[in-house]
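Figure 2 data, in text form.
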Amino acid sequence: MPNLPDVVLWSIPAFILLTVIEIVSVRLHPDEDAAGYETKDAATSITMGLGSLGFDFLWKIPVVAIYTAVYELTPARVPVLWWTVLLMLLAQDFFYYWSHRGHHVIRILWACHVVHHSSRKFNLSTALRQPWTSVTSWPFYLPLIACGVHPAALAFCSSANLVYQFWIHTERIDKLPRWYEFVFNTPSHHRVHHASQGGYLDRNFGGILIVWDRMFGSFVPETERCVFGLTKNIETYNPFKVATHEYVSIAKDLKAARSWRERAGRVFRGPGWAPQPAQAPVAAPPAEPAASERVA
């Protein structure tokens, strides 16, 4: 098994330091138009992040078992070398794009990912607001395991991708050099992703690279100030409600559904999907009177 570090654990001190620096900068040089920080919101985000560490450890047990079984069955093997790691990072980022996009357009997956979008603030603490049901992502990466990527190498690439995305959760950085904005995900691109305006919804899904969005038609540049949060925001800082509120909504919709077709739609279609209301039958026009009746 390749001996690769846990990038997320090694990065925790940097996460804390950078968050403190951002808080101080917001206090010393506030931007009246920025969302800024709120104590309860930041505390909720940090709690969600700490909780995700424990839940992710539990979810990894069955996922690692599946990945290991697939890896043992495939004859392919990708050696862990410096240049193959770069290729694996590129491939993982590609599949991350589709996983991320899927978690926005399929409601049962959105129920997991909505946690990360539930804050109306956008700062480095928001990056820590992670779901507690992240088991929904593993099927998207099965092709990499089937192609001979070791599960530990995939875990390293996923951790590196997650660490990269930490610093792009900020309003303190404006647009970066044009060449960088064209290739890589940046704070400007990710602000759009977290915005709740109609033109910004479900855009900019990239992890490290933004080129996937440019290639597959989901890229939108930042042109107006973003309004962060959900189209229907939740009014709670309770971590358990933040983690489960969309699952509760799905359960209520399933209970009220009138057909199996509607139940399937409530689970597997988009987050805003609802069945079309039945149209009232159109009344038939009055019959023409007979010729004899038209005679005065």
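Caption note: The chain has 13 helices and no strands.
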